[in-house]
Design brief:
The complex is a heterodimer of chains A (233) and B (327). Chain A has 233 residues and is mostly helical. Chain A is built from nine helices and no strands.
Chain lengths: 233, 327
């Protein structure tokens, strides 16, 4: 048990929490980066390889389109159905191969990204699906290439939905990052576990919880604000 | 300019097969405004979408400006589409872009550089009467203004053909007129060939030079609008000038189609005076068909067969189109 009358108690708490928050932001930040890159691509491919989609026939083969679509759909479902705590353990060999270790904030990026991609991919899929088909047709009638339609019509029009999806994903990743922290991933989860749970310090526990609430509020509000600003509907 | 030669297209298979297009042929001259009218489900939409190859016919050929559209692929098809603008019932503007930027999309696609795009977009927005709205977003515009943006976007890359897919169907009557007037004016100024599809007879009457009536994938009649109006049992004529049920009471009933000059003359009064017939007017409809007063009047002509025959011959002699529809 920590002694809260110790003169350095509060400054230690502050230091520890600050470091934990920094690690959390680092882990979440990088996982988010990879999640957005791969999740966006996966979401776009999910929509476009459907029947009648822009990439329904990659290299002229509808069969290939169907295979890609079904496979990706399956992967996304599998990724989303494995509870994160299990996925994390399952990925230990993979993480070690990629980062050299499965402990620490950098190693935590791997399971977070793997969990984040299917989550964000679904949100991207939903967002892009809401873009009216007529807009794609209009761009086709103007003689646009598939790439132009993808980038300038489908993704550009889905941006407000993507901003909301992004903030939802950040919130999810912050939650997962606390779980990674409990098993050696560092960050606020680690602080809560080591100080709040193992050393019975309610101050550390509260500080972590409050900071997490602040983060979630902040990112959700930012996402909502961005979506509102970006939407001209 | 546009030539559609015996195209067919069907969807589904077996018992559920739908013949959206059944051996359809059309010829549209350069600078002409051609209207295709029909109920929804008649195949008009499929027809217009084959012109820019958004859909491919199962058989037959579509030729635009000398190019066989069915054979074009990839870059060639895209470049042919730069020459064919299209406007839509629901405008299909990008909500994330301003008016100016929506118009510029069309030029980004053709690869025009930024400065030239700006200049061209401003020019075309001025032409459609929207120069003050360049920085507005589509959501801030009225339906009519949105369609003006649609027209500007379609015409920005200077196409020679404009396809209009029910472009006025979502607009109120007054706005419809303004948009139709604009299309007609632009067609004249820019030498545009226009193919429009609509379910509103009014549209045909207002701006079309020629028209076709479509039903269940077939073209039932086609020709110049004036020609169709003076064709016996013309569907277009009957739809434009609905005179209701024909009463049969033993007297001769005729329908006269007025066209242009003859509307000014007191034809019926003269008829009654010359032949001493108690002419009864059963129905009449007068419309302005792009600039000309055109109309149809249904008359009852009591009297002996000889008198009536002489009266009809006289009317025809005056250059009027007379149909005997009951006796």
């Amino acid at each position: 048990m920590l002694d809260r009358n110790d003169p350095s108690f509060w400054s230690d708490l502050f230091q520890t929490i600050l470091q934990g928050a920094g690690e959390t932001l680092y882990t979440v930040g990088f996982s988010l980066l990879f999640t957005v890159i791969f999740g966006l691509a996966a979401g776009v491919v999910l929509v476009t390889t459907e029947t009648g989609g822009l990439l329904a026939k990659p290299f002229g083969s509808r069969t290939l389109g169907i295979v890609i679509n079904k496979l990706l759909d399956l992967l996304v479902n599998v990724g989303r159905s494995i509870p994160f705590i299990i996925l994390m353990i399952l990925l230990i060999p993979f993480t070690r191969m990629l980062v050299g270790s499965f402990i620490g904030p950098t190693a935590a990026i791997v399971p977070l990204t793997i969990a984040g991609i299917p989550f964000f991919a679904r949100l991207v899929e939903i967002g892009i699906r809401e873009v009216p088909v007529g807009l794609i047709e209009a761009a086709e009638s103007l003689g646009a290439t598939r790439w132009t339609i993808l980038a300038k019509v489908m993704v550009a029009e889905a941006v407000p939905a993507l901003a909301l999806g992004l903030s939802t994903t950040i919130v999810g990743l912050i939650g997962y990052s606390a779980m990674v922290g409990a098993v050696g991933g560092g960050g606020l989860g680690d602080v809560a576990f080591r100080y709040g749970y193992q050393r019975y310090s309610p101050e550390y526990m509260f500080a972590v919880v409050i900071l997490l609430i602040v983060f979630v509020q902040l990112f959700q509000s930012l996402g909502n604000f961005a979506a509102r600003r970006l939407s001209h509907r | 300019m546009i030539s559609v030669d015996r195209i067919s297209k069907s969807y589904g298979s077996g018992e559920n097969v739908v013949h959206a297009l059944d051996n359809v042929s059309l010829n549209i001259a350069k600078g002409e405004i051609f209207g295709v009218v029909g109920q929804s489900g008649a195949g008009k939409s499929t027809l217009i979408r084959t012109i820019n190859s958004l859909e491919r016919p199962d058989s037959g050929t579509v030729t635009v400006d000398g190019q066989n559209m069915n054979l074009l692929q990839g870059a060639q098809l895209r470049s042919a589409r730069h020459n064919i603008g299209m406007i839509f019932q629901h405008f299909n503007l990008l909500s994330s872009r301003t008016v100016q930027s929506n118009v510029e999309l069309s030029l980004e696609i053709t690869g025009m550089d930024r400065g030239a795009r700006r200049k061209r977009a401003a020019e075309i927005l001025d032409l459609v009467g929207l120069s003050g709205k360049a920085t507005a977003y589509p959501a801030q515009l009225s339906g009519g203004q949105k369609q003006r943006v649609g027209i500007a976007r379609a015409l920005a890359s200077k196409p020679s053909v404009l396809l209009s897919d029910e472009a006025t169907s979502a607009l109120d009557p007054e706005t419809t007129q303004q948009i139709l007037d604009l299309i007609r004016q632009l067609s004249r100024e820019l030498g545009l060939t226009v193919l429009l599809i609509t379910h509103e007879m009014d549209v045909v009457k207002r701006i079309c030079d020629s028209a076709a009536v479509m039903s269940q994938g077939r073209i039932l009649e086609q020709g110049t609008v004036e020609g169709l109006l003076t064709t016996e049992k013309s569907l277009l004529g009957q739809a434009l000038f609905p005179l209701g049920e024909i009463p049969l009471n033993g007297n001769t009933i005729i329908e006269i189609t007025f066209n242009g000059v003859t509307t000014d003359r007191p034809v019926i009064a003269q008829l009654a005076r010359t032949y001493n017939i108690d002419v009864g007017i059963l129905g009449a409809a007068i419309e302005t068909v792009h600039g000309h007063q055109t109309g149809r009047t249904r008359l009852e002509l009591p009297g002996s067969a000889e008198t009536v025959a002489a009266a009809i011959a006289d009317l025809r002699g005056q250059g009027l189109f007379v149909e005997v529809i009951g006796c």
